[in-house]
């Protein structure tokens, strides 16, 4: 499959062997490779990552793979949007030469993969400590699945630089730690969260699940984050005051908050105030059966 | 530190940055790299791995690192032999140009490392299934520590081929699975076990712990393995008969057997007979506070 709408040539590779041959070709031409791992259902946030990769590296590889290992049996693996043809068209429309790696599950997990952790066999990567708070609280399997598939993809892509969105801030911290701890020979860049220009709602592939009514209420969480950011700018560092601002906005929109936390960027442990190294203010909320997350960084950058 | 006894030039590197610079130099000259990870206390078995690496690749890197993560708190981390100067002399005496990577623990584990698994923080690699039987039975922490440090070393070395000894047969299986599952871009070679030419005792850095009396009894295990191999050559495939041969020889030498198993090469599960794909006959025994292992392959090669 390939597409050239809008002038960008998009080649779609499906096997590890094809990607390795492509990577070898780039290497032989002295071209650096930027890598953007995604689960598809591409939106402007993903395209921003592709743009950042295109700015920094010579050749851009985008993986599109809905990774079973990061879903729990009760989560939305089956209904997660899979829109490869649309995704390829969106990438082509950027006008950039991009290569897509869209493997089958059997290509990434030749021995098969269960979403039940106890039934899993084979190699898994876990980042102890950083994986446990925040998202790890309700999704204990999640970062193990993410770290494992990203380790696989890093080895397949052989990239020089990999690009991730700040929206998944804990994922960024976990993967940075994985790269540092295991000495992966690549750099990670974190790109600021892309937002709906009108409401500020963080772009997410899961936003398509929202009803119009939910979509109208969802931006309240980010309004709360912005109020907290304003408080911090005015000198407030206390956790309780910052969280209250978020919770107040969320309550006005009747958001079903799962958690709001102020966390240390070092170990993601809860902190009582924003310290000299800054802090992450993040949270998750539910709208019907959909679960959304968002965050801001206070006093530091990733 | 460097040594040139016997004509082989041995450069000793201590930091990840030094190895990366060395690797880049090899790459720029189009040289392939062979990698031999060791815990030092080098014997003829290790030198055989270095020779195999020298035959197959252009430049050989030997790591010497006693990895705390693969020891349990009650094991012999503290008394494990550390003989870097001797090791470098032995490598120099081979006459081969070899580069040694001898990092400090703080270089490999900048956040520190506890031998207590529950206290560990950071990134770990586990190979579920293959890590659990055999050695994993008495050393549940072991292959997690091995897989983790080898993943680090593979990323640091950037090697094309890595060489391991068959004596640690389960380690070979676990690391092959890790390389396959995570798509590490390198090949693994398994080199036959080096043995004392007179007694057949498998060479091991832990043999130095043995008293003269223990050293005299230790070869009985391999004699048992050889009896089992002869039985297999004569058509015997039944587990019970093969194990009885090993246990009989071991009993005659009053070896304190921990286990003897006939295992499938696919998943290391116990099998009742040697199947069409062959089987591994392996075991562990204790002599005082020293624990030794050995194995043979029946009907297949690694």
From TrEMBL, chains A, B:
It comes from the Eukaryota. It is an enzyme of class 6 (ligase). This is Pantoate-beta-alanine ligase. Keywords: Ligase. It comes from Coemansia nantahalensis. Its EC number is 6.3.2.1.
């Amino acid at each position: 499959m390939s597409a050239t709408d809008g002038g960008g040539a998009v080649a779609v590779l499906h096997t590890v062997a094809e990607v390795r041959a492509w990577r070898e070709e780039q290497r032989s031409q002295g071209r650096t490779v930027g890598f953007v791992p995604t689960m598809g259902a591409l939106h402007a946030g993903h395209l921003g990552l592709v743009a950042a990769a295109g700015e920094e590296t010579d050749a851009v590889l985008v993986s599109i793979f809905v990774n079973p290992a990061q879903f729990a049996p009760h989560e939305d693996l089956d209904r997660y949007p899979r829109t490869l043809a649309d995704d390829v068209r969106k990438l082509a429309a950027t006008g950039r030469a991009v290569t897509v790696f869209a493997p089958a599950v059997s290509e990434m997990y030749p021995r098969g993969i269960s979403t039940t952790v106890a039934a899993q066999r084979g190699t898994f990567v876990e980042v102890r400590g950083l994986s446990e708070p925040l998202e790890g609280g309700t999704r204990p399997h999640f970062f193990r699945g993410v770290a494992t598939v990203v380790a696989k993809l890093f080895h397949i892509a052989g990239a020089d630089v990999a690009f991730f969105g700040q929206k998944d801030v804990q994922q960024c911290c976990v993967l940075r730690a994985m790269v540092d701890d295991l000495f992966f020979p690549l750099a990670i860049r974190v790109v600021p969260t892309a937002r709906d220009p009108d409401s500020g709602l963080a772009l997410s592939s899961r936003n398509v699940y929202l009803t119009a009514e939910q979509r109208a209420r969802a931006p309240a969480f980010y309004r709360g984050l912005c109020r907290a950011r304003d408080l911090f700018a005015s000198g407030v560092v206390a956790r309780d005051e910052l969280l209250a601002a978020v919770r107040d906005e969320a309550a006005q929109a009747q958001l079903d908050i799962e958690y709001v936390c102020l966390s240390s960027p070092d170990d993601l442990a809860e902190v009582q105030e924003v310290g000299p190294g800054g802090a992450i203010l993040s949270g998750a909320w539910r709208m019907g059966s959909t679960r959304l997350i968002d965050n801001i960084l206070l006093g530091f950058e990733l």
